[in-house]
Amino acid sequence: MFLHVSRALTAAIVSFALMQPAFAHEQAGVAGGLVSGLLHPVTGIDHLVAMVAVGIWGAQLGAPAIWILPITFPLVMAVGGVLGVLHVPLPMPEVMIAVSAVILGVAVAARLRLPFAAAALVVAIFAIFHGHAHGAELPRAANALAYGVGFVTATGLLHLCGIAIGTLTRWPAGERIIQGLGAGIAGIGCYFLAQGLGAAA
Amino acid sequence: MKQKSVRALMAAAILLIGTSAADAHIVAARLGDFYMGASHPLTDLQDVVLWIATGVLAGTLGASKGRWLIPVFPVGLLVGLPLGPLLGNVSTELADATMMLAIGMLLAAAAQVPTLLLCAIAFAVAIIRGAANGAELGPETDRLLYAAGLAYVGYGSITLTMALTVVFKRASDSATSWRAIAVRALGGWIAAIGLMMASLALAS
Question: Which domain, by its residues, includes A100?
Fold first, then answer.
């Protein structure tokens, strides 16, 4: 009895599983663009830590930074992306991205309290460099809209991750953990900075 | 007995799962073009993003302003549809991207858009998307059924998106409540997507 049920179940699962590949082909361009856009910001460690650091720093700074950053950050990054797509050259992009991780990491570790305008300016400059790198490395074949949707969503979610981590600042122990994370991010930034300068030299 | 019923159930389940692909053909034989018009926009990412953006913008402005779109949007789709063949091979990518950028910026800024401007924006979006959907019509498609399907799904999507946004962002919320920020952040994301898409359309 059980044998029959499990056999029938296996048959059902197999027949269901075999149907899936047929659907996938229908929108290869859209799916491909979506996946590459989603994965692009997540696969570069230097990008990833900097994005998360922006979120954490925003949470540390409190209002209004904590709610202005998620609204404007993807937009500023898209401006950088436009420059990248149009191949407008920026000075030393790889080094600047590593520097951004170092500075944002240090800011989180030291609980640096800049006035909002200054903090926004720092983040905006770095956001343009990050966006530029993503735009310049864009796969030409991908569906443009799907890539944009994936890219912006991934960036926004990384940012939200940072803000969620940043809410730990409400507790004294959490504040220490976050400072440790900031130091770690700065360390990763240093590694990429050394690599970038080594490559440039 | 029990074994038989389990087997029959499994067989029925397998058959049911397997039918979905064949389903479309039966439908296509009768009122197919209605369903084609209704399903075409839902499979196009440009339609999905722009329609949702328009619905959310109308929803954030409140029900009294937004309800104008319930007639305006489907009518716009119907007006745009015959313009499709005139488009030829011209892509609406840049126009779509511009509309996304504009609507996204208005959302992100939480701008109090006047009703007339809101209707104009929605009408423009509907015309552009109606034309884009019309451009892919074959010579054998029943125009009337296709137009009816398109207008129907336009009415449904815009009304639902608007209603969901009105419910989500309650009028009593302050400007810094998380619901208001979430809607504005969504606007920022849509504007960013529009900006990236515009640059890609210009670059290619």
Answer: 27-200
Q: Which two tokens stand for residue A50?
A: 């900097």
Candidates A140, A147, A152; nearest CB to B189: A152
Q: What is the largest CA-CA distance in chain A?
A: 72
Position A42 in a domain? yes
Same-domain check for residues B185 and B87: yes
Residues in chain B closer than 8 A to A5 (CB atoms): 3, 6, 10
Domain count, chain B: 2
Cβ neighbours around B52 below 10 Å, total: 19
Q: Give the per-residue pLDDT at B18.
A: 57
Same domain, residue pair B100 and B186: yes
Closest partner residue to B195 (CB to CB) among A5, A82, A140 is A82
Q: Omega before A91 cis (within 30°)?
A: no
ipTM of the complex: 0.74
A96 within domain boundaries: yes
Q: pLDDT band for B134, please (50, 70, 90 cuts).
A: confident
Span A110-131, pLDDT tens digits: 888 888 888 888 888 888 988 8
